[in-house]
Design a protein that fits this description.
Order of helices and strands: HHHHHHHHHHHHHHHH
Number of helices: 16
Largest sheet: none
Helix content: 55-70%
Strand content: under 5%
Distance between the termini: 63 Å
């Protein structure tokens, strides 16, 4: 009880600051999107990218290094924000009270960056095949954002803390931390596996491992220790905060830069920009159909194909080429639906049917035609003539 009172009575002001900053940034993103309030509707990709989401293309071609930092303060929708901020409210105070505010800030930034770096390194279309490699590696270079990498980093810190100092911890702390966190870690990784393709598992693992490594070499502030912090950690804290501030200043500086070409069907980055609603409906139907096709080819799961076909049929007509592309995509979906299911075997390269290889080739050819249409005719509809698309 003395141990608990001594530790748990300490302040946790930077946990609250991080909560406020995340909510504030999301509010700005929501207002910029111009979307009505919704719990699950995702923000437009252009808004995510404008606010600093990780996108390999921009890091590689335009050297926008700050995208390794800013994503840990961005969220895709309101539900995403609520889940992550609830997790921060549960985990953050323990880490901050045990290690102090200076170390807590350093942990948050370093593990968050490590998660983004892991996400960056695992965009490998040729590797992300099958249920095992697909858990970590990603097929597409899509915008990635969220505080989960840093949150997993804090969990990694508490996991190693409970093991490293188990001989001096009271029973309650031993049960709460260390191996006591294993069920939660395993459960979250299992959820990530089931939702691979939607959850950036590489970022989670990058944060978790980096947090564990930090806890191996960093000591905590024991009960009775003076609250004074070594000058070195104050400097590290200042550097971490400065890195975040500079990263968002760079984001502001490049806020109105042209969108990357692969976000051809993205939505406006500000409420003042307009977009043809007919084009938007068509683009959403095409995107949903592509996602259903990829899932059907990758996991041999055709469950979303019927809805995707119905969405294509209900999408508005724009021009002759758009109709041709729509019909071609419907044909690809029909072919994917007729492929044999995995039937208990792993849908990896060894079990890939010849029909799937042919379908993938046809889909790549269709994508080239669609991108060419986006680059030409679609510019008449999307209201984003300053954005170069491919």
């Amino acid at each position: 009880m003395r141990f608990a009172r001594s530790v748990l009575s300490r302040p946790y002001k930077f946990t609250i600051i991080l909560l406020v900053v995340n909510v504030f940034v999301f509010t700005l993103m929501w207002q910029t999107s111009g979307l009505p309030p919704s719990m699950t509707a995702p923000l437009p990709e252009l808004v995510l990218v404008a606010f600093g989401a990780k996108l390999n293309f921009l890091i590689q071609t335009q050297h926008q290094w700050w995208r390794f930092v800013t994503p840990m303060f961005l969220h895709v929708n309101l539900l995403h924000l609520i889940v992550n901020m609830y997790s921060l409210w549960i985990v953050g105070p323990y880490v901050e009270k045990l290690y102090g505010s200076a170390k807590f800030v350093v942990f948050w930034v370093l593990t968050g960056v490590a998660g983004v770096v892991a996400s960056y390194l695992t965009v490998r279309p040729g590797v992300a095949i099958g249920p095992i490699t697909g858990f970590i590696f990603k097929v597409y270079d899509a915008p990635s954002a969220g505080a989960s990498g840093a949150l997993f980093g804090l969990v990694g810190v508490l996991f190693v803390f409970g093991i490293k100092f188990r001989h001096e911890l009271p029973d309650g702390f031993k049960r709460a931390f260390g191996t006591g966190l294993l069920p939660m870690i395993v459960l979250n990784l299992f959820i990530g596996y089931m939702l691979r393709g939607f959850i950036d598992n590489a970022a989670h693992l990058g944060g978790l491992l980096s947090g564990a490594m930090l806890a191996l070499v960093v000591d905590y502030r024991r009960p009775g220790e003076k609250p004074g912090v070594a000058t070195t950690w104050r400097v590290f804290q200042g550097v971490a905060i400065a890195l975040v501030v500079v990263s968002f200043l760079m984001t502001v500086r490049h806020f109105n830069s042209p969108a990357p070409p692969q976000l051809a069907s993205a939505q406006p980055t500000s409420p003042t920009e307009t977009q043809n609603p007919e084009y938007l409906k068509y683009a959403i139907a095409i995107n949903n159909a592509q996602e259903a096709l990829v899932v059907a080819m990758k996991d041999r799961n055709p469950s979303n194909i019927d809805n995707a076909v119905k969405g294509l049929e209900n999408a508005p007509r724009l021009d002759q080429k758009s109709d041709e592309l729509r019909e071609q995509l419907k044909t690809l979906l029909t072919q994917a639906k007729s492929m044999p299911a995995a039937a208990g075997s792993s849908p990896g390269p060894a079990n890939k049917p010849v029909q799937q290889d042919k379908l993938e080739v046809e889909f790549v050819a269709w994508r080239k035609e669609y991108n060419q249409w986006l680059k030409t005719n679609a510019r008449n509809y999307n209201g984003l003539n300053e954005i170069e698309t491919k």
